[in-house]
Each structure stands twice: as C-alpha cells, then as structure tokens.
Design brief:
Layout: H1 2-26, H2 35-47, E1 51-54, E2 63-68, E3 75-80, H3 94-111, E4 118-123, H4 132-138, E5 147-154, E6 158-161, E7 165-174, H5 190-204, E8 213-220, E9 231-240, H6 243-264, E10 267-277, H7 284-296, E11 303-306, H8 314-318, E12 323-329, H9 340-345, H10 349-371, H11 373-379
Helix pairs in contact: 1-3, 1-10, 3-10, 5-6, 7-10
C-alpha cells in the first residue's frame, strides 16, 4: 500500500521537476555561483511549508530546509547538488540530482505525519570544486540527522558507490628572471623546479601503492621563451582508497617538490587549493534496505556497489552519518561523465523514468527509517 502511495505522489511531481531540471540545463551555474537555482529552491520550499535557513554556514548558495511533523521520531535528510561544469554545463547531471532530492523531500513531507519525525533537504553547492558537504560534515550539520540520502546519474544502477579519498595540493616555485640568451647564469628557473617535480614523481610511481593516483598540471610556467621564468605553479590531485594512504602519498609528493626546488635553487610554497574528500564509507544495512526498495520500484538490474573510482564530498558525510549515495542509469547508451553528451541525456524521457523509480526508492528508504526505530538501531 505505501509503495503505491509513494509511486503516485512521486509521479505527480514529475512534470514540475522535469521543467525545473530542463531549465537548469539551459541555465547552468558554476559552483558557489548557483544563485538562480538557489533562489528557486528556497522559494519552493518555503511555499511547501519548510523552515529554510538561507546562506547556511555562511555559504551564499547553501541552505538547510526542515519540515517537522510535530511528533517525536527520527530525522531523514536528502541532499541536492546543483552546480554545473565550465563550458559543458550539466555534464555531471546535477540538475537531476537537484530535483531528485527536492522531490524526495516533498513526498516524504506528505507522508511524515503518519510516522512522525523530521525531513530535511540540504542544498549542497560546489560539489565539483569547494565541496560544501565537507564544511557541513565538519561543522555539525549531520549531528542531529539519522541518515542522509542522495543519488547521482551514471551508466548503471547501483545501490551505493565506492569513492577514493582525495586532496588537492599546489606548489609555487619562485626564482629569478634573466635574459635567457644574454645572461642565463643570472637566472633561477622556476619552471625547472616544476618539470623536475614531475620527473621525481614519475620515478616514484613504480613504488606507489597500487590504489594510489597522482595526477597534475602546470598552471603557470613563464611568459616568454627568452625570459627565465621566475614563477611556476603546478597543481596535483592525490587519491587512494583510504585517507591514510593519501597522506603518505602527499608527503612523498612534497618531497619530490622539495628536491626539485633544492636542485633548481628556488623558493617553494604549498597551498591546499580545494577541500580534501574522504573515501565513501558504505553502511551495509542501510544499503541493503535501499537495494531492496530499488528492486521493488522497478530497478531490477541494480547492483549493490560500484567499485571505487572518483572522489565525492559525500564521502565526508558518510563518515559522520549513515549515507546512501546511489547511482541511477541515465541512458540506454554508455556515456562519458563530464561530457556534453552526458548533459544532453539529462533531458531525455529515459533519464527521468529512471530517476522517478530512484526517487521512489529514496522516499521508501527514508520512510522505513522514520517508521522503525528498530531498523535505525541495526543501521547505526
């Protein structure tokens, strides 16, 4: 009975959510600049009776929206992302992530008086860059939340996702300019330090742990070929299955840069230019509940867990509260994430039908938590 009710209520929202998602496709906004969609979401949630904390944690496009049934019980949070990618727009499908979280929160609100408790929707900007969920996890947002639930489009259906721990590190080398032909002996070449950082790193790769990943680019390397560069900058991502391994790899990379700087005679400074992401911690019992619900709502081909690949700020959330981060199939064709083709697929009927089933599973999982104190004790 409850499954049928959920299906009907989710379906009723689909035309409105399709229009909103398509609008986001046409109006992509970069991380921490998602002002238009932020305003639309806040206005919608207020109309629906949610208490909305705007500019949550001092982040201009972050919000926390809560609906309290007035009865004691548990608290379920859904998460929405809405930042786009430069050039590509919604090539990671955050327009669908946005409306899936919004729909789940609205439908749960419609059911919550039967079971008590609270439903929360968190607007989490800048997943692709500054990762607002990191601040949320660090600053107590999830302290009074029992489970967190979100989803993400992809090439297959998964109940949960594996992800890598990650940090972003930048090295700036300072040298001395000189005429590269007339007086090269007076110059200190900062670009040499960058190049030799990469050379030292490549020598280390043979001895890296098998799950380690270090990839980098040169963001500054000089302004003219006849001027010895006095400033050069390189940025790296360091990833591994566990953050302890990331810490080890980071220290080895720093030594690569220090050695290169010493050899070139430069000064060196270090900057962590993005927030560090934890690996995703799968809660087996919660994932089992979602997995069974997903199958019940028609996602028959769903697999339990995707192997680890990229990195997510939801990883940080998963270390402080039991978390679902499912994947739903976007297209009948295999698509490359962060591509224009992926973005275009978010407009398709296939994508929305798949998302609709996924939202039903999200709502039912939240409902199960709200309805059963015993289930939560098994999860926690």
């Amino acid at each position: 009975m409850i499954n049928q009710t959920i299906k009907e209520k989710v379906k009723a929202y689909m035309p409105e959510m399709k229009a909103l998602s398509d609008w986001m496709y046409e109006h992509p906004e970069l991380g921490d600049e998602e002002y238009e969609i932020y305003n639309r979401l806040v206005e919608k949630l207020k109309i629906e009776g949610f208490q909305v904390e705007e500019q949550y944690l001092g982040i201009p496009t972050c919000f926390r929206a809560e609906y309290d049934s007035g009865k004691p019980g548990r608290t379920v949070a859904y998460l929405s992302e809405y930042d786009a990618l430069p050039d590509i727009g919604h090539g990671c499908g955050h327009n669908l992530i946005c409306v899936s979280g919004l729909t789940a929160a609205l439908v749960t609100k419609a059911l919550i008086h039967e079971v008590g408790g609270k439903v929360v929707l968190l607007g989490t900007p800048a997943e692709e860059t500054n990762g607002a969920k990191v601040d949320m996890a660090d600053k107590g947002t999830f302290d009074n939340i029992d489970v967190a639930i979100m989803t993400h489009p992809g090439n297959q259906n998964f109940a949960t996702v594996g992800s890598l721990a990650m940090l972003a590190i930048e090295f700036t080398f300072k040298g001395q300019t000189a005429h590269a032909a007339a007086s090269p002996e007076k110059g200190i070449n900062a670009l040499d330090a960058v190049i030799n950082t990469f050379n030292n790193l490549n020598a280390f790769r043979e001895h890296m742990p098998s799950d380690g990943r270090i990839h980098g680019i040169i963001t500054e390397g000089g302004v003219a070929a006849n001027i010895v560069p006095d400033r050069a900058v390189a940025q790296f991502y360091v990833r591994a299955n566990e953050k302890e391994t990331v810490e080890y790899l980071k220290n080895r990379l720093i030594n690569c840069a220090k050695g290169a700087s010493l050899g070139a005679g430069t000064e060196m400074s270090i900057n962590y230019y993005e927030k560090a992401y934890d690996n995703f911690k799968t809660n087996k019992k919660l994932t089992e509940v979602y997995y069974e619900n997903a199958k019940a709502f028609g996602l028959e081909d769903i697999s339990f867990e995707r192997s680890r690949s990229g990195s997510l700020d939801a990883g940080n959330v998963s270390h402080v509260v039991p978390t679902i981060h499912s994947i739903f199939k976007l297209s009948s064709e295999e698509l490359i994430s962060h591509s224009r083709e992926f973005a275009s697929a978010t407009l398709s009927d296939y994508a929305f039908e798949s998302m609709e089933k996924t939202v039903c599973a999200m709502v039912k999982t939240g409902y199960d938590i709200l309805a059963s104190e015993g289930l939560l004790s098994l999860i926690k």
